[in-house]
């Protein structure tokens, strides 16, 4: 099943459902075997990746923008080529839904994000510049 704002013509075995949001999006992500993210641009923070991880859905993505940091080895896998992505797809049973959820809770909860914002603002006020970010690994 493919959701999104454009209609791909990849295969007769795909069902295109168009743009989704709210409860429909939550249901699709929670029931999906993976979120397929073969983006070809430097996406700074695709929210649907975090939504998938919260749902326990692993993410298969390209190494563009923030995706390598967001996904991490406990949230899915990164593939640089089409062949890599297909090989990862064959390993979906190896990914743990609970590990995906834990990754989202550890790095993207409202508490974690609020703490990180406070740390950044305090550093800016104290030193006149933003402190270095923290790696997600």
Structure overview:
It is built from 6 helices and 5 strands, in the order ββαβαβαβααα. The chain is mostly helical and 137 residues long. It has 2 domains: 1-31, no CATH class; 36-127, Rossmann fold, CATH 3.40.50.2000. The protein has a 3-stranded parallel beta sheet with strand order 3-4-5, sandwiched between helices. Helix 5 packs parallel to helix 6. It is elongated and about 60 Å long.
Strand-helix topology:
Elements: E1 2-3, E2 16-18, H1 22-31, E3 35-37, H2 47-54, E4 59-61, H3 67-71, E5 76-78, H4 82-89, H5 97-108, H6 110-127
Parallel strand pairs: 1-2, 3-4, 4-5
Helix pairs in contact: 2-5, 5-6
CATH superfamily of the largest domain: Glycogen Phosphorylase B
Q: Round the Cα radius of gyration to an integer and report it.
A: 17 Å
Quickly give the CATH architecture of the largest domain.
3-Layer(aba) Sandwich
- Stated plainly, the CATH topology of the largest domain is called Rossmann fold
CATH class of the largest domain: Alpha Beta
The succession of helices and strands, N to C, reads: EEHEHEHEHHH
The order of strands across the largest sheet is: 3-4-5
Low-confidence stretches: none
Q: How is the main sheet built?
A: 3 strands, parallel
Mean pLDDT: 90
Distance between the termini: 31 Å
The DSSP helix count reads: 6
Shape: elongated
Q: Based on helices, strands and strand pairing, what is the structural class?
A: mainly alpha
State the domain count.
Answer: 2
DSSP helix fraction: 40-55%
Strand content: 5-15%
**In total, how many beta strands?**
5
């Amino acid at each position: 099943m493919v959701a999104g704002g454009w209609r791909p013509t990849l295969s007769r075995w795909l069902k295109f459902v168009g743009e989704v949001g709210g409860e429909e999006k939550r249901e699709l992500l929670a029931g999906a075997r993976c979120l397929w993210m073969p983006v070809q641009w430097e996406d700074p923070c695709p929210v649907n990746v975090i939504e998938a991880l919260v749902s326990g859905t692993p993410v298969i993505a390209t190494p563009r923008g923030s995706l390598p940091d967001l996904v991490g080895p406990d949230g899915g896998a990164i593939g640089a080529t089409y062949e890599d992505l297909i090989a990862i797809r064959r390993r979906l049973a190896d990914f743990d839904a609970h590990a995906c959820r834990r990754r989202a809770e550890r790095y993207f909860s409202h508490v974690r994000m609020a703490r990180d914002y406070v740390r950044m603002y305090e550093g800016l006020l104290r030193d006149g510049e933003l402190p270095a970010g923290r790696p997600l690994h």
